[in-house]
Automatic annotation (TrEMBL):
GO terms for cellular component: extracellular region. One of its GO terms (molecular function) is endo-1,4-beta-xylanase activity. Its EC number is 3.2.1.8. Keywords: Carbohydrate metabolism, Glycosidase, Hydrolase, Polysaccharide degradation, Secreted, Signal, Xylan degradation. This is Beta-xylanase. Belongs to the glycosyl hydrolase 10 (cellulase F) family. It comes from Decorospora gaudefroyi. Gene3D superfamilies: Glycosidases.
Amino acid sequence: MRVSSIVAGLALASSAVASPTFGWGKKHRDSLYKSMKKSGRSFIGTALTLRDEPREDEIVDANFNAFTPENSMKWESTEPSQNNFTFDDADRYAAYAKKNHLQVHCHTLVWHSQLPAWVSEGGFDNKTLIGVMENHIKKVMTRYASVCTRWDVLNEALNENGTYRDTVWLRTIGEAYIPIAFRLAKKYNRGHAKLYYNDYNLEYNEEKTAGAARIVKLIKSYGGCIDGVGYQAHLASESTPTAPGPAPDQATLEAALHATADLGVDVAYTEIDVRMNTPPSAEQLQVQSDTYNRIAKSCLAVRKCVGMTVWGISDKYSWIPGVFEGEGAALLWNEDYEKKPAYYGFLKGIKAKKWGWWWW
Ligand code: G3I
């Protein structure tokens, strides 16, 4: 690590933001990265799928100090059959992080999706499934102990009404699977990763946000450790067939962040994208820009909001059009890797916060 990054790290470590500050060593002008660094928060990141697109490397280098591997650390990628661990793909991301001095938001350990059938349909009893969970957490966390800045220990465990999602974990183990997952994550956390619960629609659905707060309290009531809650922020700038619009106002976003931050954990936007009906008009792109602007402002208005991750770089590769037909254009760069109005709205939102770390 360069001296400048160590100095920056020390300066930021004195702030009230209780989260790692690694990765702020680079010097680029007028990027998301540079502005976020000034804000005193821990990270600005992107979801990353390594592909043959040199423009993506340039964009990551100029704008981000963190990334989330989009798919490579999920269970189906790392343990496709029982106790057969396949780390080749995830290792590429670990190497990329080290080479480029980037934080990694590691994603994800316990989830119902992208979970191989040998787990979800294995018919394991309670004790055996806990053993399966422990083996997975142990092997994956230990392998990436020197890489992961944060870990999504548990992903998307809630229904929209705040009750627990019906998954193999809940059906077999009961709600105790949640504190058990966090206890195991702490046990095998050989590095310094912050341990997160991560979910979507927490930004405006009060019932679901209350569910996330309940999860934080549950883990703590078992004597466990949870460091943060990830607000995915898969939002829509207008009403679409699959989402209500417009996206929440700033007060709603801040209130949602406070709902768990006030319990003493960090919060972060972990998977931001703002979709719309496509193809977009200039007016739609401006509404999207305003949305990105207030997402950024809401994070920077909440002291415990440690960073933000956008869920991909270019609209060319976003997951949205493939899942929600007729929707998309959700990211900061268009399909030709040109900055969209959303980029400038997001940047302006980050810059709206004055230098913060020294007055906290
Ligand atoms: O890699 C295979 C390829 O070999 C195969 O030919 C192809 C055929 O469909 O599929 C490829 O896998 C796809 C994978 O992305 C990698 O591209 C899967 O089908 C596809 O389902 C998978 O989608 C991912 C999705 O999670 C799965 O749930 C998206 O890329 C990823 O952006 C998305 O991310 C999730 C977060 O993890 C959790 N929060 C919601 C978010 C958006 O859905």
